Amino acid sequence: MQSVRRYATQALRRRLIGRSPPPSAASVHSFTTLTRRTTSGTHCHATFSAPWAATQSRGAKMLGSDVRLGNVILRKGRIYQVIKAQHTQQGRGGATIQVELRDVDTGNKTVERFRTDEAIEKVFVEDKTFTFLYKEGDSIMLMEPETFEQLEVSEELFSKAASYLKEDMAVALHYYDGKPMSASVPTRVTCAVVEAQAHTKGHTVAPQYKRVVLDNGLTIMAPPFVEAGDHIVVNTMDDSYITRA
């Protein structure tokens, strides 16, 4: 029995070595429980406790191509929030993404380029849902849907997505270390078209998109059949047309 227990312990240690961050006291307790249950034949994955799982989810990896506005990332030992992101193509050099980052602690800004296939460490953030009430100056008023408590945040948290805010819309605040770092709106939002360019027939087989102005003031590209007065569904991530509403 001692040899079985020793073998199980050594195997678990090999799996855990090198993981970051170091296990907390709760994690050590989980490890002990795991070792005891493994020696009795219980499958090891069933005995991890919640604190251990939460610790492991903090260092999720994503590709440079997946970096989005509002993401919180770990870079060169510092925590940054992505405040601008633009994809570029550099000939034979391949595609890159240029990002403007804000240091969470100091507020300093810096610009960097990521390869689209580069591994970026995304920092775990907590999402909380709120209801949009109204905008006043540079402030956004939100309401917690269960407690009805109101919260005032800066419009900067939403960045360009603030243009899509509508009364009673469900929005998300993304918290890091107890502080709201960014905010987001639903990916699909219905907007009214207030202006549309006249459609001109061309000789190309592919449909020619045209500029249309939405009721929130944004100008996007839409198919030629879209006219003023139509309601369309827009992808708020890249301001692109999806379909007619």
Automatic annotation (TrEMBL):
<dbReference type="InterPro" id="IPR020599">
    <property type="entry name" value="Transl_elong_fac_P/YeiP"/>
</dbReference>
<protein>
    <submittedName>
        <fullName>Elongation factor P</fullName>
    </submittedName>
</protein>
<comment type="similarity">
    <text>Belongs to the elongation factor P family.</text>
</comment>
<dbReference type="Pfam" id="PF01132">
    <property type="entry name" value="EFP"/>
</dbReference>
<comment type="pathway">
    <text>Protein biosynthesis; polypeptide chain elongation.</text>
</comment>
<dbReference type="GO" id="GO:0005829">
    <property type="term" value="C:cytosol"/>
</dbReference>
<dbReference type="InterPro" id="IPR015365">
    <property type="entry name" value="Elong-fact-P_C"/>
</dbReference>
<dbReference type="GO" id="GO:0043043">
    <property type="term" value="P:peptide biosynthetic process"/>
</dbReference>
<keyword id="KW-0963">Cytoplasm</keyword>
<keyword id="KW-0251">Elongation factor</keyword>
<dbReference type="InterPro" id="IPR013185">
    <property type="entry name" value="Transl_elong_KOW-like"/>
</dbReference>
<dbReference type="InterPro" id="IPR001059">
    <property type="entry name" value="Transl_elong_P/YeiP_cen"/>
</dbReference>
<dbReference type="InterPro" id="IPR014722">
    <property type="entry name" value="Rib_uL2_dom2"/>
</dbReference>
<dbReference type="InterPro" id="IPR011768">
    <property type="entry name" value="Transl_elongation_fac_P"/>
</dbReference>
<feature type="domain" description="Elongation factor P C-terminal">
    <location>
        <begin position="189"/>
        <end position="244"/>
    </location>
</feature>
<keyword id="KW-0648">Protein biosynthesis</keyword>
<dbReference type="GO" id="GO:0003746">
    <property type="term" value="F:translation elongation factor activity"/>
</dbReference>
<dbReference type="InterPro" id="IPR008991">
    <property type="entry name" value="Translation_prot_SH3-like_sf"/>
</dbReference>
<dbReference type="InterPro" id="IPR012340">
    <property type="entry name" value="NA-bd_OB-fold"/>
</dbReference>
<feature type="domain" description="Translation elongation factor P/YeiP central">
    <location>
        <begin position="127"/>
        <end position="181"/>
    </location>
</feature>
<dbReference type="Pfam" id="PF08207">
    <property type="entry name" value="EFP_N"/>
</dbReference>
<dbReference type="Pfam" id="PF09285">
    <property type="entry name" value="Elong-fact-P_C"/>
</dbReference>
